């Protein structure tokens, strides 16, 4: 089995697991653990800012490693351990409450102790899960032949999106048939698959500069962020992608609380991702005629329209065509971003640029948007989507500036 095929299969496991972590873990947190929307948003906020710290460090560490896949082995094991411990939240919360009482003489409530435990485990598990994607994206771009009719980057990425569809449908069905506890079982099983898969990837050697200390590699990566063009990409595309926070974290809860079945929720999410797959598989080559910045701008416009309409709680008959806008709001933004990074930084520096993007674009904006979404969901329900409209508009304005910016100066 070729390295490209192995990485593509690993990518599929990752995105099936992402459906569990992103779409259904919030359902488990609310229905099983009794967390509020604001508490769920806080967990996402902490995990997001954890990525800002862990991402650059992970990139600097990876730059000094002779095997490009070595970071995946450690990170995937940490993620698996965190979610395994999440299954013991009740016992861990009781232990924490006893420890706090022994020190302070006053025990916290079981709920507060549970939130504290989930916050710590979420910091490790969710932060680590998001770190993995940067290595996967760089690996796919590096290993997949852009001239191949069978396995170029857009097709490999499209197969990952199909795995996301399968995961969301399967876990939605499991939620209906087996109950909310099945969500965490899926999370653990798919994370176990990631951990095993990381060790099955063939080592991929890279040229490593001798004697370059970790601090110097970290400074080099952070230097990318100071480039005006890359900075605009981080926040232009970042705000558009962050505007998905309400939809990703609370969209399913909005529908479920309106008596929509778990299987139908999974299907609705899958329709959006199916359009994403169609865009990547069928229109990926066609979209090359447009400059990547144009794809990012089109994604921002699509997101603005999408969230404005979803805020009005349309019926299922309108939700289906609205999900088609996922092809713009996510897929076009995503593909434009990846192509710009590859165009600007090439094979050797793209992995570091990927991690900087994931850390400073996907992380802080998405984290703040998740906290904002938690407040909006708790107080306004579906009207919370209007807050995401504001984020998408900021992304559109920054993307317009990005179109006029030149390529970053490379050291």
Structure characterization notes:
The protein is built from 15 helices and no strands. It has 411 residues and is mainly α. The model has no long low-confidence stretch (mean pLDDT 80).
What composes the largest sheet?
Answer: none
- Class from helix and strand fractions: mainly alpha
CATH superfamily: MFS general substrate transporter like domains
- Terminal residue distance: 37 Å
**What is the overall pLDDT average?**
80
Proper CATH architecture: Up-down Bundle
Q: What best-fitting shape do the alpha-carbon axes yield?
A: globular
Question: Under the CATH scheme, which class?
Answer: Mainly Alpha
The percentage of residues in β strands lies in under 5%
By DSSP, the count of extended strands is: 0
Number of helices: 15
CATH topology: Growth Hormone, Chain: A
Q: Give Rg in angstroms.
A: 21 Å
Helix percent reads over 70%
| SSE string, helices as H and strands as E | HHHHHHHHHHHHHHH
Number of domains: 1
User: What are the low-pLDDT stretches, counting only 5+ consecutive residues below 50?
Assistant: none
Summarize the structure.
The chain is mostly helical. The chain has helices at 3-31, 37-63, 70-86, 89-104, 110-143, 153-178, 181-200, 214-225, 228-242, 245-256, 262-282, 292-310, 316-322, 326-380, 385-404.
SSE layout and pairing:
Layout: H1 3-31, H2 37-63, H3 70-86, H4 89-104, H5 110-143, H6 153-178, H7 181-200, H8 214-225, H9 228-242, H10 245-256, H11 262-282, H12 292-310, H13 316-322, H14 326-380, H15 385-404
Helix pairs in contact: 1-5, 1-6, 1-7, 1-10, 2-5, 2-8, 2-14, 3-5, 3-7, 4-5, 5-14, 6-7, 6-11, 8-14, 9-12, 9-14, 9-15, 10-14, 11-14, 12-14, 12-15, 14-15
